[in-house]
Design goal:
By secondary structure, the protein is α+β, with helices and mostly antiparallel strands. It contains 5 helices and 4 strands. Helices cover 41% and strands 17% of the residues. The longest helix has 18 residues.
């Protein structure tokens, strides 16, 4: 029967349903500009199906992925299954901005990246409330 999924297919479905994604923005003292801004994929738990799916595609199993190439490879594995994730909009943002957002080096770079993220969000979410990139009380926010 063609309707029955094999183990590899089931593993990909598990991967797609448990993956999370978004653009992460974290204040940090480790970087001169004061922020770490990047597309990220993550898991809250690594189940055996996730491990098998990642390993079968030559990826190291971790809870968080931020490398552009690894993100691209994972997104290709789950292509067409984004809606299974609870952060499907965040996954779409990662798809759209992976390789485009570069880690800011200066405060001016941070402002430019945050303005780009605001523009992206306002286009993709008409109910988006614009954030001022150089103001705010939060140390971390997630676009997902």
């Amino acid at each position: 029967m063609s309707g029955i999924l094999n183990q590899d297919d089931r593993d990909v479905v598990i991967l797609a349903s448990l993956i999370r994604g978004g653009i992460k923005c974290v204040r940090t003292t480790e970087r001169k500009c004061g922020y770490q801004i990047r597309p990220e994929l993550w898991f809250t738990i690594i189940k055996p199906g996730i491990q098998r799916a990642l390993e079968s595609h030559g990826l190291t199993v971790r809870l968080t992925y931020s490398d552009t190439e690894e993100i691209t490879r994972i997104l290709n594995i789950i292509n067409g299954l984004d809606d299974l994730s609870s952060t499907s909009q965040g996954l779409q943002a990662v798809r759209d901005l992976n390789g485009i957002i570069e880690q800011p080096r200066t405060h001016e770079d941070v402002v430019k990246v945050l303005e780009m993220l605001n523009k992206y969000e306002s286009v993709h979410n008409p109910h988006h409330a614009r954030r001022e990139p150089n103001k705010g009380d939060e140390d971390e926010w997630q676009m997902d």
